[in-house]
Amino acid sequence: MAIEGKTEARTQKIRLGMVGGGSGAFIGGVHRMAARIDDHFDLVAGALSSTAEKSLASGRELGLDPERCYGSFEEMAAREAARPDGIEAVSIVTPNHMHYPAAKAFLERGIHVICDKPLTSNLEDAKKLKEVADRSKALFVLTQNYTGYPMVRQAREMVAEGALGAIRVVQAEYAQDWLTEAVEQTGAKQAVWRTDPKQAGAGGSTGDIGTHAYNLACFVSGLRLDSLAADLDSFVEGRRVDDNAHVMLRFEGGAKGMLWCSQVAPGNENGLRLRVYGTKGGLEWEQENPNYLWFTPFGEQKRLIPRNGAGAGAAAGRVSRIPGGHPEGYLEAFATIYSEAALAINASKSGKAVDPAVVYPTIDDGVKGVAFVEACVASSKGNGAWVKV
């Protein structure tokens, strides 16, 4: 990120481990690429799969020391904590139901945790993990990666500075089409666990992508959700979790919103979109065209704000890596979360306060995300009844 090169000397790389993310795992590869982009981390250990043999094979593919390829996260946490050169942070990229026990094992040993979303597969585990994190001296970072986009930071800064006035309406959506058919029945790895409530939790599309839309809405608007009314569907026959959801939102302070998430919307790949409207103007941003933000002051023409271009502010600039016109996207946004985590970890190591400009999703954001999913499920079971979050 721009801030690192301008204001801080290069520090020694943070020794990183990984739980999950072995051969064939999409999100594990994403996390490894994100950790490398700004060169703050060195992957040195892993419990990369559910068996010792698979973990060792995956570790060898990544060039890890075979002695630091573990058969379980419990073994990895105990042995790495005992090493003088043990890992300082761990990435957890398993299916949702394993987030709680894995994160707990490392937090209790003072090892920083960078965990994929949602926080856990159920709210009970989320609350218990928060208690563990609050007791630990280690940091907890949740990879709600869309908060890392420069123009999302730009939108957040503009809302905070009052450019939109008082917020009235927030519209968030995340539409995909990859689960339009029952691909989980073909054995597709990414679909199998995401449609299994024992691994993913009670929410399907709500947990997988709805949490992203919800987190983004709150991150940019600065609002806190009060209650919701949800209508969830499992359109594909035999599917045990929702694949489409329509959710009405009531925020504290009186603002209203709507959220739509779907994985059965043909023609949509990763259609994450956010619109925020206040008394003085509105903002529009979409993930598939992420380097631009539309701003419309009330009564005036729409204005296009490009990343690293005219109208872009400091919040966007500090997480931009390349000149405007050269697209930054998904991996760079993910890398921003890793770099923010690195800045916070290095500040913790040196006993210094972290720069106030450093922003990353926390354990509290994770608890809110799981609470959102469970409230959606409860509301839908109650025929769309309003549920407090």
Q: What is the number of strand segments?
A: 14
Whole-number average pLDDT?
Answer: 96
Relative helix content:
25-40%
> What is the C-alpha radius of gyration, as a whole number of Å?
21 Å
Largest sheet report: 9 strands, mixed
Cross-sheet strand order for the largest sheet: 13-12-11-10-6-9-8-7-14
- As residue ranges, the low-confidence spans are 3-8
Strand content is 15-25%
Number of helices: 13
Quick summary of this structure?
The chain is an alpha/beta fold and 389 residues long. It has 13 helices and 14 strands.
Please provide a written account of the structure.
- The chain is of the alpha/beta class.
- It is 37% helix and 21% strand.
- The chain contains 13 helices and 14 strands.
- It has helices at 2-7, 26-37, 52-61, 73-82, 99-107, 123-135, 150-160, 189-194, 197-200, 205-221, 314-317, 330-350, 363-381; strands at 14-19, 41-47, 89-92, 112-115, 140-142, 167-175, 225-233, 244-251, 256-262, 271-278, 281-286, 292-297, 303-306, 387-388.
- Strands 13-12-11-10-6-9-8-7-14 form a 9-stranded mixed beta sheet. A 5-stranded parallel beta sheet has the order 2-1-3-4-5, with helices on both faces.
- α5 packs parallel to α6.
- The longest helix has 21 residues, at 330-350.
- The model is unreliable at 3-8 (pLDDT under 50).
